[in-house]
Amino acid sequence: MQLMDAGQPLGSLSEFAKEYGDEAFCRRLLRKYDGNVPKAAEKFKHALRWREQNRELIATRHCLHGSDERVVGADVEGHPILYTCLKNQMLAGSQCLDQK
């Protein structure tokens, strides 16, 4: 959390990006990386910087569809199950979002 304070690596990020970096998110990262604090901190920084860079996409939820994508059902919790086929890629690679 101190990473977002003024003068720290993430201190210059907007409130939009910082609001995602709450304590619950930190706990999820620590759990995912088995308590490895340096790894979790690196992923935390990466996530908040990604939010900063992709603010418009997150806020508008508007993106170009670049392949055959279909909702084919729902799981037991009601989340959509998507089918994606990249064989029929419709966008040039330079127009696609980085999936790292």
The number of strands is 2
Coarse shape: extended
What does the largest sheet look like?
2 strands, antiparallel
State the distance separating the first and last CA atoms: 23 Å
Give the averaged pLDDT, no decimals: 77
Strand order in space, largest sheet? 1-2
Helix content: 25-40%
Please provide the ordered H/E string of secondary-structure elements.
HHHHEE
Q: Structural class of the helices, strands and pairings?
A: alpha+beta
Number of helices: 4
Draw up the topology in text.
Blueprint: H1 15-18, H2 23-32, H3 37-53, H4 55-60, E1 68-74, E2 80-85
Antiparallel strand pairs: 1-2
Helix pairs in contact: 2-3
Any overview of this molecule?
With 100 residues, the protein is an alpha+beta fold. The chain contains four helices and two strands, in the order ααααββ. The protein has a two-stranded antiparallel sheet with strand order 1-2. Helix 2 (23-32) crosses helix 3 (37-53). The radius of gyration is 17 Å and the shape is extended. The protein starts with 14 loop residues before the first helix and ends in a 15-residue tail after the last strand. The mean pLDDT is 77.
Main attributes of the structure:
100 residues, alpha+beta, two-stranded antiparallel sheet, 4 helices, 37% helix, extended
Provide a quick synopsis of the model.
This protein is of the alpha+beta class.
